[in-house]
Amino acid sequence: MSNPPLLEVEGLTVEFETYGGVVKAVRGVDFTVEAGEVMAIVGESGCGKSVTVQSLMGIIPMPPGRITAGSARLNGAELLGLEPRAANAFRGKEIGMIFQDPMTSLNPTMTIGDQIAETLKVHRGIPGQQAFESAIKLLEMTHIPEARKRATQYPFEFSGGMLQRAMIAQSLACSPSLLIADEPTTALDVTIQAQLLDLTNTLQAQDAMAVILITHDLAVVARTAQKVCVMYAGQIIEHGSVDDIFYQSAHPYTLGLKSAMPSNIGDREKSLDPIPGSPPDLFSPPLGCGYAPRCPHAMRVCHEENPPFFKDSNNTGHATRCWLQAPNAPSVPELYQSNKIASDGA
Predict the structure, then answer these.
(1) Closest C-alpha among 301, 248, 284, 283 to residue 292
(2) 87 partner at 20 to 30 Å CA-CA among 31, 119, 262, 332?
(3) In Å, how far are 195, 201, 228, 254 from 220, measured between CA atoms?
(4) Is 272 exposed, middle or buried (0-12, 13-18, 19+ CB in 10 A)?
(5) Domain finish residue from 202, 225, 248
(6) Predicted TM-score of the model (pTM)
(7) In this structure, are 72 and 218 located in the same domain?
(8) Is position 289 within any domain?
(9) Per residue of the chain (346 residues), what is the pLDDT tens digit?
(10) Residues 318, 248: one domain?
């Protein structure tokens, strides 16, 4: 009998009350993360990636935000709807998080060492000086030079790459079973990006820690992840292994993302193909597939009914929310013939 997943998310639905109406930011998201697994959630800005993981952490502002449906269980314990005291018991201890912008996420009035030590004091009960010494070791582990000196400095004295390393040290202080990295390489140059990704992979492998990586950069996904969820308009529209997503993409949106990415393979004269149009208005989400207005292969049913997931007939775990993958789909483009997959009920 296999072990249950470390994290199980089912039917997560998140809305925001605004002056213009209710924004349906996350619409019934389901996924699982196994212990020691790296899962990436990809998609363009505004698709609901960050709101999804912030809901798990209990850090979306309420109001205007509200979780209207769903469940999220970490090691069998429900995360959604916890009181602040109960939520604080697992934040930082069971789940660590690297935020997108460390400069605004770290306290500018506290030294880096004190901020890391505070996590150890609160969650591990380690006394002051011992916690500070542990903070220095954590900074050394993330390859920050002169860690003892740097621990006494403030965030404004660190470069962008060093701030991200400090946030990694803080998020790993209590050896969490799950690390959430919300676009950790944004605004960093490619050399620092590569160093941070290598560092995260090394630390994750050492502690058998699960990682949820939030990004819109497919190159980062290919380098880091084992499993991928593609999000669009508040829903996961394709999921599978990294090989499934890159080499057997089945959703037109995933194919569009790949076509818009530069490549060093093939004809150098090949132009990039941007996805035309704009994402749907989540004040009033479409009845059908959210991608239908932008999809070159959309059928009438795509505009009228939201598709279910259609699973890979080979039982690989690859599944796609697209009517083009239905067993009776008419005039399926040749592009999809090699990746024909069967419906949930088949």
Answers:
(1) 301
(2) 31
(3) 12, 12, 12, 15
(4) exposed
(5) 225
(6) 0.87
(7) yes
(8) yes
(9) 467 889 999 999 999 999 889 999 999 999 999 988 999 999 888 888 999 999 998 888 888 999 999 999 998 889 998 888 888 888 878 888 888 777 788 889 999 999 999 988 988 888 888 999 999 998 988 888 899 999 999 999 998 888 888 888 888 888 888 999 888 776 667 777 777 778 777 877 777 789 999 988 888 888 888 999 999 999 999 999 999 998 888 899 998 888 777 666 655 666 777 788 888 889 988 899 999 999 888 889 999 999 999 987 666 789 999 998 888 876 555 445 444 444 343 3
(10) yes
Domain final residue pick, 225, 256, 290: 225
Residues 56 and 37 placed together within one structural domain of the fold? yes
Two tokens, residue 159: 């470069």
Q: In 34-149, which ranges are E strands? A: 38-42, 65-74, 77-78, 95-98
Secondary structure of 276-306 in HEC code, one letter for each residue: CCCCCCCCCCCCCCCCHHHCCCCCHHHHHCC
Residue 73, domain extent: 7-225
Structural domains of the chain, count: 2
Q: Looking at the domain assignment, is residue 334 inside a domain?
A: yes
Within-domain flag for 2: no
DSSP assignment string, 197-217? HHHHHHHHHHHT-EEEEEES-
